Amino acid sequence: MKLDSKIPQGSISDKWTSYKSSVPLVNPANKRNLNIIVVGTGLAGASAAATLAEMGYQVSAFCFQDSPRRAHSIAAQGGINAAKNYQNDGDSVYRLFYDTIKGGDYRSREGNVHRLAEVSTNIIDQCVAQGVPFAREYGGTLSNRSFGGTQVQRTFYAAGQTGQQLLLGAYSALERQVGIGNVKMFARHEMIEVVTIEGKARGIIARNLETGQLERHFAHAVLLCTGGYGNVFYLSTNAMGSNVTAAWKAHRAGAVFGNPCFTQIHPTCIPVSGHYQSKLTLMSESLRNDGRIWVPKKQGDDRHPNDIPEEERDYYLERRYPAFGNLVPRDIASRAAKERCDAGHGVGPSKMAVYLDFKYNMMNKYGKEEASKKGIKNPSDQILLELGRDVIKGKYGNLFDMYKQITDENPYEVPMRIYPAVHYTMGGLWVDYELMTTVPGLYALGEANFSEHGANRLGASALMQGLADGYFVIPYTIGNYLSKEIHTKPISTDHEEFVKAENKAQARINHFLTINGKRSVESYHRELGLIMWNKCGMARNEKGLKEAISEIQALREDFYKNVKVPGSADEFNPELDKAGRVADFLELGELMCLDALHRNESCGGHFREEFQTEEGEALRDDEQYKCVFAWELKGENNWELHREELNYENIKIQQRSYK
Amino acid sequence: MGNSMKINLQVWRQKNAKTEGRFETYQVNASPDMSFLEMFDVLNEELIEDGKEPVAFDHDCREGICGMCSMVINGRPHGPKQAVTTCQLHMRSFNDGDTVVVEPWRANAFPVVKDLSVNRSAFDRIISSGGFVSVNTGNAVDANSILISKEVADTAFESAMCIGCGACVSACKNASAMLFVGAKVTQLSALPQGQPERESRVVAMVNQMDAEGFGACTNTGACAAECPKEIPLSVIATLNREYYKAKLNGK
Ligand SMILES: Cc1cc2nc3c(=O)[nH]c(=O)nc-3n(C[C@H](O)[C@H](O)[C@H](O)COP(=O)(O)OP(=O)(O)OC[C@H]3O[C@@H](n4cnc5c(N)ncnc54)[C@H](O)[C@@H]3O)c2cc1C
Ligand code: SF4
Ligand code: FES
């Protein structure tokens, strides 16, 4: 197999424009006869489904939740980037492009990332036109904040609920097309097989989760917008149902998987509190605008944080990275937290946490600002705190409430305790510039693909990418494929390939139900997660990865002997749904470890302990690994590695520095 | 942390919409730092180990934002705490030895799927009848070309926070969906982008709401009291005002 990324010729800033002006179009009459399946209704899926339907295609959309509005994107908190330069602080398309490539530790494609930066501005316009209530200034203009890895303010937000507002915008556009009849919506449906006919994607097998019925759906093209696979770690900030099944089934049907081990561990999450823990909760990166991260200088210091005097605190990010301070990229902030905790400076009951403290900015930034606005002379500390608290409340109120609800501590008075947690997967289905996987007619959008974030994603860039893919990229690029499909008549779902795929899915379901062992699906998931976290998490090494691979293989074998799936196939049965998802995670986990083992360097979120600088920073090996690892499945647990070399023609590769 | 509490659960079990349901009693050991749904996870693990059927319930984000979780706890949608969804409720809100009764949303427009899980697709159909701004992708002007005052933006945002959970319907003795519909209508009629379809929108959404079999509003306010996102009762007044204005204008 030869990977062709299909990056257009020409200078970086002309590639997308010239692609758009030369890509074949499909005329309106033909569009009406072309069916597109969109699996997933998160930002990527809802925006794609709505836009393609507006253009006149016949769209069928699927999601496993009871409504498309509940996709995991709804939970995104902090914001969305766009190179609008509304703050007049020197932002530009080029700077967003540059920051993203650098933030990704030089492991993403220049052509794709530049396009993303170009369309970023249209996204904000589109969302505002839909009625998305972004935060605004008193003068009526849009408000911005900063995120990690940048020195400009380009992040648009709606309190701590940006994902919700953006998704509801895309969802309303989608529902409008449902009303018009251009989209058929299948909620509580899970895609469990991709159907390929003569090498092209032609449809899916979906399970109606309410009735258990298997259904066959035909389309001229299939778009997977099914999100990330962070839940392979069991504990993550992802929603409980987030899974890899759709992408994995595509992988099994021939789609190559890109950089599977590239995982983002987010530095600011609420720490684990007990063995029953089912998920971890993110405290948005935006908090690092105003929160300062510290640990006690003394090891094992048990004093209450408010009793530890200033000079006995180690603001380790500000100390190590004076240029970016608390706003270094996520991979760096996470590793630094782990380093401090491993060195015995961790806080809280588990000692696996650091403080995120708002007091300084509450008083000195906002308190003073407000006091001077109100003309209060020589305000006391108490007054400063009170004034500042209101500002902080306006900015992050819902996050503070959520923190209090979960931990029973008041973050306005006591610093938050935070620790890194699995958050996002940069890896995913390999796609070319047109977002097509290696299976013709099968596309991947949003977090499900591997494309724009290299080895580390910058904050507020996933929402941007999901909406870029759905609103502004796929509507053009799909034309290149579908313009050649206008003579393909709908294929009957009685076709043998549909029958074969359905039988395969049915057999697998029956198999789960008949194992009748002793252990719950959940217990396997938890065990897998622990292996992944310990050996393929924030730090990895050769020995651990090799152990992990054999442990996962053994666990998988045991799963197929001992798992207990209650209930039957012809009813609403969440345990059965979970069994399928965990079975896929048990295969993916092995591939992630294999990928991490083969990448003998550290880059971004992939930190191999054997490869670090003297200061403990990631040590890349650009000679050998300036490439994408793309894995092709050759048989059970048998993969072939392909490489896509990355060319940097516009950005000079450097050792990444935030000092 | 760690100190264990015993909870007596009475849980509604119902195989599907066509069969009758009944309460079953279970005992669970919980910890105060556990979330309410984590307590159900523990119960389900035990049921599976004992070869029994676990309790089906809806949930996804467990962060209070997706609107999927939906339990009536001791007679109150989302339980005893103000402004908190079922998934964000913690066991420290209960006492050792408490009996806790858990039921699904009760409304004709939300048929039971199984146990504690219901079908809320009626809400999607209300949105698809008019809960949007008709603007195709690519038609937008620069985002800062229309200025919107902070007050208007904040009002719109306050209503846009609705998570579509349906607690308002469940709380209402008439199973009215006025708070849900009012929230969307308030958001879009506050914003300049919502003006062109302002009247047709409200009429279409109200018609669809009626067609789905939601009940009438008698201004009792139970909906707003139970809404986890504190959508204010005033959105219902706005909805009524917008509706009558549109009707007067012959929409
Ligand atoms: C807590 C949290 C906060 C975040 N905050 C930010 C932020 O502030 N800014 C930012 O840029 N990014 C943020 N992110 C990341 C960002 O939210 C996600 O990367 C992004 O929303 C993913 O969107 P998506 O459309 O690709 O997939 P998702 O939103 O995950 O949607 C997946 C869809 O696929 C469907 N699906 C999946 N599998 C199947 C199947 N087999 N069959 C049928 N349907 C299926 C699901 O039902 C769902 O509709 C955050 C992430 C988390 C976890
Ligand atoms: S108005 Fe409140 S209770 Fe009703 S659906 Fe919205 S968030 Fe839920
Ligand atoms: S599970 Fe998402 S709101 Fe409760």
What order do the helices and strands come in, and which of them pair?
The complex is a heterodimer of chains A (659) and B (251).
Chain A: H1 15-22, H2 28-31, E1 35-39, H3 43-55, E2 58-62, E3 80-81, H4 93-103, H5 110-130, E4 144-145, E5 155-156, H6 162-180, E6 183-186, E7 189-197, E8 200-208, E9 214-218, E10 221-224, H7 245-252, E11 257-258, E12 263-269, E13 292-296, E14 313-314, H8 316-320, H9 330-345, E15 354-357, H10 359-373, H11 381-407, E16 416-425, E17 428-429, E18 442-444, H12 462-482, H13 496-515, E19 519-520, H14 521-535, H15 542-562, E20 563-564, H16 574-598, H17 622-625, E21 627-635, E22 638-645
Helix pairs in contact in A: 3-6, 3-12, 4-5, 5-12, 10-11, 14-15, 14-16, 15-16
Chain B: E1 5-13, E2 22-30, H1 36-49, E3 72-73, E4 76-77, E5 99-103, E6 112-114, E7 117-118, H2 121-130, H3 150-160, H4 167-171, H5 178-190, H6 198-211, H7 222-226, H8 234-248
Parallel strand pairs in B: 1-5
Antiparallel strand pairs in B: 1-2, 3-4, 3-5, 6-7
Describe the structure.
The complex is a heterodimer of chains A (659) and B (251). Chain A has 659 residues and is α+β, with helices and mostly antiparallel strands. Chain A starts with 14 loop residues before the first helix and ends in a 14-residue tail after the last strand. Chain A has 17 helices and 22 strands. The radius of gyration of chain A is 24 Å and the shape is globular. Chain A has helices spanning 15-22, 28-31, 43-55, 93-103, 110-130, 162-180, 245-252, 316-320, 330-345, 359-373, 381-407, 462-482, 496-515, 521-535, 542-562, 574-598, 622-625; strands at 35-39, 58-62, 80-81, 144-145, 155-156, 183-186, 189-197, 200-208, 214-218, 221-224, 257-258, 263-269, 292-296, 313-314, 354-357, 416-425, 428-429, 442-444, 519-520, 563-564, 627-635, 638-645. The longest helix of chain A is centred in the middle third of the chain and has 27 residues, at 381-407. Chain B folds into 2 domains: 5-113, Beta-grasp domain (Ubiquitin-like (UB roll)); 121-136 and 147-248, Fumarate Reductase Iron-sulfur Protein, Chain B, domain 2. Helices cover 35% and strands 13% of the residues of chain B. A 5-stranded mixed beta sheet of chain B has the order 2-1-5-3-4. In chain B, strands 6-7 form a two-stranded antiparallel ribbon. In chain B, β3 (72-73) and β4 form a beta hairpin. Chains A and B meet through α3, α5, α6, α11 and α12 of A and α1, α2 and α3 of B.
